[in-house]
């Protein structure tokens, strides 16, 4: 399992359209991808409604955990998801 921390920087917070794109990246990764907020709430990144329930705002820190059946797959998923976060959130 691999993970990364990320602080939300988007002043417009998080909306459904980029979450839909994020869910697609997570599904395509063939890994389990979980996002956790500072209150230890955990949601499956493949499910948009769950992420929206976290009600993330600018300045909130999240932990994204990625678990796949091999390290190469996990690292590729981590790279894709992290780059998506940097670009959109």
TrEMBL record:
Keywords: Cytoplasm, Phosphotransferase system, Transferase. GO terms for molecular function: transferase activity. InterPro entries: HPr, HPr-like, HPr-like_sf. It is found in: Cytoplasm. One of its GO terms (cellular component) is cytoplasm. It holds the Pfam family PTS-HPr. Its main location: cytoplasm. One of its GO terms (biological process) is phosphoenolpyruvate-dependent sugar phosphotransferase system. Residues 1-89 form the HPr domain. Belongs to the HPr family. This is Phosphotransferase system, phosphocarrier protein HPr. It comes from Brachyspira murdochii (strain ATCC 51284 / DSM 12563 / 56-150) (Serpulina murdochii).
């Amino acid at each position: 399992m691999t993970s990364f921390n990320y602080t939300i920087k988007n002043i417009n917070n998080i909306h459904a359209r980029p979450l839909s794109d994020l869910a697609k990246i997570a599904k395509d990764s063939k890994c389990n991808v979980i996002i956790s907020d500072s209150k230890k709430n955990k949601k499956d990144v493949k499910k948009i409604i769950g992420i929206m329930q976290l009600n993330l705002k600018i300045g909130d820190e999240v932990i994204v955990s990625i678990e796949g059946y091999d390290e190469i797959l996990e690292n590729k998923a981590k790279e894709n998801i992290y780059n998506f976060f940097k670009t959109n959130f």
